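Thread title: Can someone regenerate the structure for this chain?

I was given the following input by a collaborator and told the matching structure tokens would be attached. They weren't. Posting the sequence so someone can regenerate them.
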Amino acid sequence: MKCIVILGCKQNTSKLNSELMKRAEKAISLFDSNSLIIASGRTTYRIKAESTYIKEYLIERGIPSNKIIEENHSQNTLENAKFSITLIKEKGLICSELIVVTSCYHSIRAGFIFRNMSDIPVMTECVNYERSDSDESKKFLIDALRIYNRII
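Best answer:
Regenerated them for you:
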């Protein structure tokens, strides 16, 4: 089975923001009858998790609800990986590949984290989206050091 993980991001409105919509559309384009989608993420200050917005959007676009798992506890990329991989294991899912869908500015870091936390082959798919508040190089280095410190 192909497992597709859509990573959440800050959700400041009561509807799916354009960045999450692009990520969801990318996942829809990758989806087939042998796929499962994990909608991942929860911004701390929102009552409704972005994973819920993603799931609702996917259902509106025709993805069967039984093909969507909601992971609504993660608040950062490390937690996206940890909680999504835990869900896969807890549900006994056998994923032949794990496709992480995120924005291009975030894909290297997200891929690095998922590859270091999973024994499932990981690939990333990204959508173009520009963020003015992003300093991905710094975040990548911090995450790499966290993972390195966990290993040694």
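The longest helix spans residues 136-151.
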